[in-house]
Amino acid sequence: MKNVLTGLFSLLILHAPVHVWASPTWGVTGHRVVGLVAQNHLKKKAKRKISTVLQCNSLAEVSNWMDDVKSDTAYNHTHDWHWVTILAGETYETSKKNPKGDIIMKIEELTATLKAGGLSAAKEEEALKFLVHLVGDLHQPLHVGDRDNQGGNQVKVTWFGQNSNLHRVWDSDMIEGKQLSYSDLAGFLDEPSREQVKQWQQLSTREWAAVSQSHFPKIYDFPENGKLGYRYSYDHFGTVQTCLMQAGIHLAGLLNEIYG
Ligand SMILES: [Zn+2]
């Protein structure tokens, strides 16, 4: 079965017009952390309106919905929205666009759509859930790939002796290794100053994509044997925490702009 799948996947790659990869996503914990951080930085008015749109669910609760619906064929058109590849030396503007959409395109579209308003309750709820998830993904650096390796999915490594890949290490292996609940992890993050929050919220989605890519020299710096574990986590968990906090602050900024 595995070989069949691998074969199918290679076929898919060969015929894909642009770089295609079937990525997971920040693990469930990471997305919930981003949701909780954002929730804590919402203005009162935005918090009230969002609670109505989400039928009293919190941002953390809806943050993984976009991954859950991957198993529903009705959402096949959203599969490529979770990521983008901007090859080294290019910018988003000069890069070849995926006709099926990408994470930057969709965050920008969804923000504009929600700002414009006039959506049915169901459509608004759906758009908001997409946005919550995608802003989270944008801050997992490997969702903004800079080389042709499916955002690190093709970089095979081991994580404490178990087969994994670089993308997965950043999505979930490092986070799950801490064995913290999402609320504990959110509570452990360093709270930025008001000034810092303001500064981060002024950055555009495209600028945040560049921040994600700026982490690559360090992310790809590991032993050739690909054996990752304590040392890699020790070197990089700080970056994971910063990315999660920045994602939450960025998301809160967008939502305050839309609903404030
Ligand atoms: Zn995702």
TrEMBL record:
One family from Pfam that matches here is S1-P1_nuclease
Q: What Gene3D superfamilies does the annotation carry?
A: P1 Nuclease
UniProt keyword Signal, yes or no: yes
Which protein, by its recorded name, is this?
S1/P1 Nuclease
A GO term (biological process) for this protein? Answer: DNA catabolic process
Signal sequence interval, chain numbering: 1-22
UniProt keyword annotations, A-Z: Disulfide bond, Endonuclease, Glycoprotein, Hydrolase, Metal-binding, Nuclease, Signal
Top-level taxon of origin: Bacteria
Give the GO molecular function terms: endonuclease activity; hydrolase activity, acting on ester bonds; metal ion binding; nucleic acid binding
